[in-house]
Write a structure and sequence with these properties.
Blueprint lengths: L4 E10 L7 E10 L2 E7 L9 E6 L3 E5 L1 E2 L19 H12 L4 H17 L2 E8 L9 H12 L2 E8 L18 H15 L8 E7 L7 H14 L2 E6 L3 H11 L3 H7 L7 E5 L5 H10 L2 E4 L1 H6 L7 H6 L4 E3 L13 H12 L10 H15 L17 E5 L11 H7 L5 E6 L2 E5 L2 E2 L4 H20 L7
Helix pairs in contact: 2-3, 2-14, 4-5, 11-12, 12-13
Bound molecules: zinc ion (ZN).
Pfam families: Amidohydro_1
GO molecular function: 8-oxoguanine deaminase activity; deaminase activity; metal ion binding
Keywords: Hydrolase, Metal-binding, Zinc
């Protein structure tokens, strides 16, 4: 017997189930933390314990958006190195990033999470890989902010141990030791990972990238993840420069390198995957390796266009990611639905690259699949967790667009009237319900200024 029910009626519904079932006018009933029913017309009669009944006229309901790649700390280093490609951009920013401390990371996480939530994200993730010595409990701070904002969350506990003196890209003072990184990652899993299917917090093992991580950390990281039963995440095949780095240092391309270190498999998802040939795509398909597609960041850093239509045709799980906000200042995922569709239509498949429904699927079910959670989130179906968004489509921006899914994907960013996570309201009429948005904005500005001051001070590098 449900303790409380929320009923939403008279709205268009895109369920993103296996058949892409849609209703021009339908209902969703939420009972406690779960979706109880979805269907055409009004809600079933005689429901008890209805605490809220919402008239969704002029709205579209979809599953909540799932973000599969982000770096929260970059919220306080936005708008820098704006005309660089990836490697130059990294080299320009590493010295600043290496100065982050716990209050900075906490304020940046709060900002990133608030922006995610406001844009209809119900499951967020953070790939955090900068852990300067003595900086405090950064993972704990990030996880705490996710809980405070009310979003479902995966922390991909990152790491770097290949500094400049080992032929890597980051400066030596920005990296951890192999042993230190592995021990801290294991401790984060033991402290925070919830293996239950309804979990609000999960941890993944996430060494940063081939050019900032030793082969041994890749290998032992994969072993650690499998021993603990958690997922694996990293950056891969992002740029032509990375491809050259792998050929020169490892004598093979990125995908072969990942395979040789245990980094292809159904428990792995990788950000970007732009520079993939047919045999790379076949390897991802064969092993069930997932992809976080980040179209805005790839464009901002001139990385190229990921072969999403080919990945989908090969059955590769693909979700969307904003990537860090130092390479995608907007920090919004609902605009990535549009950008994924537009960017891929500029590629070789042209107008047949992606449909509006496929774009919505990438941002919802696709993301859930990539995070290994598609059995519980990512579509609106009875028995799944109540993570959903009510998008307002009856104002100037959208009221004359015929098809609600086209309005959401191709139109201006749609306002969020209501967002539920685990049955709880996290956004109401465009405002966050759990945190004070203005306080989050103020703290982020203050910490961004403090980081800029600390980073330009000569000497006393964090070591
Ligand atoms: Zn990234």
């Amino acid at each position: 017997m449900a303790a409380s029910r929320i009923v939403i009626e008279n709205c268009a519904i895109a369920t993103v189930d296996a058949h892409d079932t849609e209703y021009a006018s339908g209902h969703v009933v939420v009972a406690d933390t779960l979706i109880e029913s979805v269907g055409a017309g009004g809600a079933p009669a005689g429901l008890e314990n209805v605490v809220r009944r919402i008239d969704g006229t002029g709205h579209l309901v979809t599953p909540g958006l799932v973000n599969t790649h982000h770096h929260f700390y970059q919220w306080i280093t936005r708008g820098l190195a704006t005309d660089h490609h990836l490697f130059d951009w990294l080299v320009a920013l590493y010295p600043t990033w290496a100065r982050v401390d716990e209050p900075m990371v906490r304020a940046a996480a709060a900002g990133s999470l608030a922006m995610m939530a406001r844009g209809g994200v119900t499951t967020a993730m953070d790939h955090h890989y900068v852990y300067p010595r003595g900086a405090g409990d950064l993972s704990g701070a990030i996880i705490g902010e996710a809980a405070r904002t009310g979003l479902r969350f995966t922390l991909a506990r990152g790491s770097m141990d290949r500094g400049e003196s080992d032929g890597g890209l980051p400066p030596d003072f920005a990296v951890e030791t192999l042993e230190g990184a592995l021990a801290a990652t294991e401790e984060t899993i033991d402290t925070h990972h919830d293996a239950s299917p309804d979990a609000m917090t999960q941890i993944a093992v996430a060494p940063c990238s081939p050019f900032s991580v030793s082969t041994e950390l890749m290998r032992q990281g994969a072993e650690l993840a499998r021993r603990k039963g958690v997922r694996l995440h990293t950056h891969g095949s992002e740029t032509a420069e990375e491809e050259r780095f792998c050929e020169e240092v490892f004598g093979m391309g990125p995908t072969d390198y990942f395979e040789s270190t245990g980094w292809l498999g159904p428990d792995v998802w990788m950000a970007h995957c732009v520079h993939m040939n047919d045999s790379d795509i076949a390897a991802f398909s064969r092993t069930g390796t997932g992809v976080a597609h980040c179209p805005s960041s790839n464009a901002r850093l001139a990385a190229g266009i990921a072969r999403v239509p080919d990945l989908l045709a090969a059955g590769v799980p693909v979700g969307l990611g904003v990537d860090g906000t130092a390479s995608n200042e907007s920090g919004e995922l609902h605009t990535e639905l549009r950008n994924a569709l537009l960017v891929n239509r500029l590629g070789t498949h042209r107008e047949r690259a992606l449909t509006t429904r496929q774009a919505l699927r990438l941002g919802t079910y696709g993301g859930a699949r990539v995070l290994g959670r598609a059995d519980r989130i990512g579509s609106l179906e009875a028995g799944k967790l109540a993570d959903l968004v009510l998008w307002r489509l009856d104002t100037l921006a959208h009221s004359s667009i015929a098809d609600p899914v086209a309005a959401l994907v191709l139109g201006a960013p749609a306002p969020v009237t209501l967002s539920l996570v685990h049955g709880r309201t996290v956004v109401e009429d465009g405002r966050l319900t759990m945190v004070d948005e203005d306080a989050v904005a103020g703290a982020a500005r203050d910490e961004a200024r403090r980081l800029a001051r600390v980073a330009t001070r000569p000497g006393d590098v964090t070591a």
